[in-house]
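Appendix B. Extra example for self-study. Work through it before the problem class; the solution is given directly after the inputs so you can check yourself.
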Amino acid sequence: MSYKIALNFEDGITRFIDATESESIADAAYRQGINVPLDCTNGVCGTCKAFRQSGAFDAGSYIEDALSDAEAAEGYFLCCQAKAKTDMVIDILACSGACKVKPKETMAEILKVEALSAHRIRLSLKPHPMFLPGQYVNVTAPNGTAKRPYSFTSTPGADVATFLIRNVPGGKMSGYLEAKAKTGDRLVLDGPFGSFYLRALRRPILFLVGGTGVGPILSMLEYLAAWGANDQPVRLVYGVRDDADLVEVDRIEALRTRIPNFTYDTTCSGRGSRHPLTGQVTDHLSASVLNNGNVDVYLCGPPEMVESGRQHVAKFGLLPTNIHFEKFAAASEPFAI
Ligand SMILES: Cc1cc2nc3c(=O)[nH]c(=O)nc-3n(C[C@H](O)[C@H](O)[C@H](O)COP(=O)(O)OP(=O)(O)OC[C@H]3O[C@@H](n4cnc5c(N)ncnc54)[C@H](O)[C@@H]3O)c2cc1C
Ligand code: FES
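Solution. Structure tokens for the complete assembly:
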């Protein structure tokens, strides 16, 4: 039996390996060219300590000096000893460069480019690289004319990779997608990247998103619909400025029928909006949704929206580890090819 293991490195890079039940996670990583930190290989030194985000494993044998009982109870384990018993998501306590992780590029072909509104584009590509729901890839346009990060809206394992992209007036990638992109164009994807991914479902979830920040949340919701959200309440508040940019709501409504305890609201903040709810996403939060701080909050969208949302929810006593966020910042110069 072989399992899929996602290795998340400290610099936000993720790589996927296969591991059998009979090999240690360190052996599986080395077999696939990833040199996770290792020294004694005997459960004695603690060099290979890692953290389990999700999944089950057999911890193997080791001494207390290498891994204390308290660390084991928190979710730490030793890669040289542990064997996977299910698919897993693991934090490796080192940067990818130190583990000789090579850049991973996928050539993908455009299947469709759709204008959902004047400011929103849906891009569909094939094939679909591996990623965790919520992560992004850097997309390079043909001839390297632009390279920009975009988050998947599709779920891992889907046939077609989809993205929801803001059409920025005068933007390099926006200009390509709006005026030139056609079926069959080949784009380079590198990644996946990012620590903004869906964690194991241990408490209620609150998604607070602005604009195209709804994209990675769609991926997370698709994942919850496909793999089960147990009975934890899942709440989404999705805001945009212009009514016309409130896209993908049909998809969210369809997800509502597939996720047992999922509710959502949409709100528009532009002047003269005719939408039933107006204002910012934080205007539509009841204290009960924050569950006395026992909730996982995921914020995504424009940097100012994410920052004000973060400050708002922090007042309700949430631990920083329960607040996950991604700021859709404009590309910095090194990206502006
Ligand atoms: C981790 C990450 C994930 C991202 N995922 C997505 C995603 O899934 N969907 C998505 O739409 N965007 C996403 N973004 C943002 C996206 O990469 C930018 O919108 C993109 O850089 C714009 O590219 P462009 O080439 O069209 O415009 P550029 O050529 O980069 O910009 C043209 C001009 O518009 C300004 N500008 C760029 N973006 C914005 C903006 N959002 N608001 C106001 N002014 C802007 C720039 O400063 C510049 O002056 C993500 C960003 C990050 C960091
Ligand atoms: S390498 Fe020493 S404990 Fe794993």
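Self-check: The two ends are 44 Å apart (CA to CA). If your reasoning did not lead you there, revisit section 3.
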